[in-house]
Amino acid sequence: MVAQNIAFGIIAAITVAAALGMVTTRNIVHAALLLVAVLGGLAANYVLLTAEFIATTQVLVYIGAVMVLFLFGIMLTRAPIGRIPQMTGATWPVAALSALALGGITVYALIDRFGADSLATDNTVFRTADVSDSVFSQYIIPFEAVSVLLLAALIGAVVLARRD
Amino acid sequence: MSAAADLTGALGLAYWAETAIKLGVALIVIPTAALMLGYLFLLKMMAFMQSRLGPTDVGPHGSLQLIADAVKFLQKEDIHPAAADRRVFRAAPVVVLASSFLLFVVLPTGPDAVVENLDTGIFYAMAVSSLSVLGVLMAGWASANKYALLGGLRAAGQLIAYELPLILAVMGVVIQADSLNLQEIVRAQAEGEIFGFGLIGNPFILTQFIGFLIFMIAAQAELTQTPFDMPVAETELVGGFHVEYTGFRFLLFFMAEVATAFAFSALATVMFLGGWWIPGFDFNAPILNVLGPVVMLAKILLVAFVIFWIRFTYPRLREDQLQKFAWKVLIPLSLANIVVTGIFKVVL
Prior knowledge:
The complex is a heterodimer.
Chain A: H1 2-24, H2 28-48, H3 52-77, H4 92-114, H5 128-135, H6 140-161
Helix pairs in contact in A: 1-2, 2-3
Chain B: H1 3-11, H2 15-49, H3 65-75, H4 86-103, H5 121-129, H6 132-142, H7 146-177, H8 182-191, H9 204-207, H10 209-222, H11 234-237, H12 247-272, H13 288-313, H14 319-347
Helix pairs in contact in B: 1-2, 2-12, 2-13, 3-12, 4-5, 4-6, 4-12, 6-7, 7-8, 7-10, 7-14, 10-12, 10-14, 12-13
């Protein structure tokens, strides 16, 4: 597992550096592009965890769709080249606190659930069919809940966009 | 694509040696593919369709013209606009080219001749092909040019709209083949039967003809080829997102465009035309590692011919027509295709 650990170290360093750059840069398009790098780093880590389907979904949904829409929106409105003097909003302490809280809860939950468990070293790849089997049997209720949530968001968007 | 690559895997080479060979094959195959399509279709075929000769001087029938052009591009000065965001400006063509390079990773050309036989095959291809729009947006923004920015925005709007029918058209094939894996899709076609007649297998173009049409139209839009070339419309945007690019950076965009056309033709071949399998052969016959790439190349050139034929035949759509066509025609049609395919899958 040495190679995987080295790869993880490199990917993690790039991801963290990109995340720090994203919140400190003074250019909004650079921030968006650094967020792309962060999401790409996460996808690479999913590959290391042999979760190929999740990694591909991450690239398709977050980088290929969500970030492209972000950039599209930013460029359609106002995206000057160069530094913007005032990029820090007035509510940044609240944002920092909630980010810390979310990070703390996630780390606590992960350590509490998995502790020192380690991944099986026999290089089994989770096949896509296994993923869909578990989604449509064991996790059917969360799956349906997410579907309803997305449907609600979709209808909300249509209602907001309609003029009449 | 890489018959050599996986045969070496069977020979039991070390991991690094295998990787080096795969990299080498990729570095040869992709520029060759781009050159071939560029020469055959962009230079010669377009010229003949317009009653011209095309290049004639460099090499036999002008066949080395593109190499001469590449040398010309490499000699040019590397110009950045003064107001441009230099780092993003430089990264943009690399992102676009990387997206089309990554597409070649999963293309199968024989039972063992594939760089990586990923379990998520076609899903992976759709994901990495969606990365190119990121590079286009970066190029449009970083050029500090209104035409470039407009081109980038048009490209983003168009690629978002046409990615949906593209993926939905693929869904029909995936349902019928029971797998996302490209090799399994080829196998499903090779072992399929048409009304109990299994000699030529069951190329999915027969059962998924609507899916094939939608895929080809959406691929044309993804490649920003005429009639969907609003992002680079010369007469309106003087070249769109790559208006400020010269020399080898422009060459990267050009290579990416043609190489992606090749890769999309290859995906259409694998999903709808039976891929590399030759009727009458055993699916795993080792000889197919040699014959497969040849058959595959012939089919790819056929599909690419259609793509370029449409490109040189039809005039450009208007921006609102383009969006209407995607959202009101292609997406409902592809959803209906999925429903019908699903019903047949359950019934049969």
